[in-house]
UniProtKB/TrEMBL annotation:
Biased composition (Basic and acidic residues): 14-42
Protein name: Helix-turn-helix domain-containing protein
Xref: InterPro entries: AraC_XylS_family_regulators, Homeodomain-like_sf, HTH_AraC, HTH_AraC-typ_CS, Tscrpt_reg_AraC-type_HTH
Coiled coil feature spans: none
PANTHER family given in the database record: ARAC SUBFAMILY (PTHR46796:SF6), HTH-TYPE TRANSCRIPTIONAL ACTIVATOR RHAS-RELATED (PTHR46796)
A Pfam entry, by short name: HTH_18
Domain of life the protein comes from: Bacteria
Occurrences of domain HTH araC/xylS-type (ranges): 56-109
Region (Disordered): 1-45, 97-122
Species of the source: Microbacterium rhizosphaerae
Acidic residues bias (residue ranges): 1-13
Keyword Transcription regulation on entry: yes
Organism phylogeny: Bacteria, Bacillati, Actinomycetota, Actinomycetes, Micrococcales
Keywords: DNA-binding, Transcription, Transcription regulation
Length: 122
């Protein structure tokens, strides 16, 4: 064995180009079984994802509105804008659809609950 040779047994000829090293191969999802209906299932997933994301965002916005209604005295129109609703009517409709009551009724009920839980001041 000479000191100027690599002893790893790799002559370098089978190496991948620099940009390809370390990138695992990914199977093509179209390979394999082509059962009828797969295209429809794939299309449904593609179309459902934006709907799920929109519903998630809407629910987080409504969660924020509930918090603000219950814990602040910020006017409803300001809450609507703060939480990303373009108009008070859009906010009110979305809130009513989600919770079954108008935002003002929710705020009133939350205040009544808070007042009934706090100790009476003599």
């Amino acid at each position: 064995m000479r000191g100027d040779e690599d002893d790893d047994g790799d002559d370098g000829e089978d190496r991948a180009p620099e940009e390809d090293r370390g990138v695992p191969e990914v199977a093509d999802p179209r390979d394999g079984d082509d059962r009828p209906g797969d295209d429809r299932a794939d299309a449904a997933c593609v179309h459902e994802q934006p709907c799920r994301e929109a519903a998630f965002i809407r629910e987080r916005r409504l969660d924020r509105t509930r918090y603000l209604l219950e814990n602040t005295r910020i006017p409803l129109s300001d809450i609507a804008v703060m939480c990303g609703f373009g108009e008070l009517s859009t906010f009110s409709r979305a809130f009513r659809r989600s919770s079954g009551v108008a935002p003002s009724q929710h705020r009133r009920a939350a205040r009544e609950r808070a007042a009934s839980l706090s100790p009476a001041v003599a």
